[in-house]
Amino acid sequence: MKKILRILFLGLCCTGLLMSCSTMHNPLKIKNYAEIETSEGCFVIGLYEGTPKHRDNFMEKCSSHFYDETPMYKAVHKSDYSFGLHQEYDENSVLQTDYINETTLPSEFNGKIIPKRGTIAMKRLEGSQNPDKKSDANLFFVIDGGKNLNIHEIKASVALKNRDTYKLYIDEFLSHPENKVYKDSLDALHDMKTMKQYNEVYARIMKIVKPQIEKDGVELFSISGKNNDKYLENGGVPMFEGVYTVFGEIVVGMDILDKFSKIETDLDRHPIKDVSINSTAVLKKKDFKKKYK
To answer: How far is CA 189 from CA 163, 166, 185, 234, in A?
Structure first.
């Protein structure tokens, strides 16, 4: 009997290990879905197995109808559309309060999960207050970024994300007397507004300071070749990579993004007309296939 129990136990352990390995190798695997009915139409989100805490949290919110009758409270065209904020609340105040009250989720970043067009992510408190990039458990957004993302835009996103790091090292480099010639060149080119030459000199200095950045163990943002191809094919917002936890993608109703992109906003990016979530529902894989396949 003990031998049989031991065999069963080992079998269960192996099964669990195989399932865990499968998830690690394929974090984009989808077994659960969230159906979102909005005033602009319906779309279905496939929830990634590689982000289990975010998956379970979103399923719980949708099952309990937490998002029912909540508006789209912000629309940033060619970027993202935000939901989950109940009327008369301010986003930053909610993020601050939720962080203090620990209504947050640990970040679940994975190099294979990127903010391509049609993916879903949770908002988070920005800055040094939240060094671990914990997600808010309530506010989420749908990523757009536009359909046509070219290689120059991707490179610009990488450069923008690394800008502050390079500036810190370049300022330090220019502060040394032996590098005064570089500082004088930049100052002169800036005053003459010859930005092409200014950028060329600045790029030269970037190459000079890069070895020191690497020596100090500071990690610069980069996009892998595979992910680069995904952005070119699907669009998205590369700037969000490693910033917000992406935990799912639209698998039915991608045309909803075209509708969202036409929504007019005020100067604060609040939709002028009412756009809201009417209802939500959670579907298991077999139920999803019955309804949508």
So the answer is: 20, 19, 6, 39
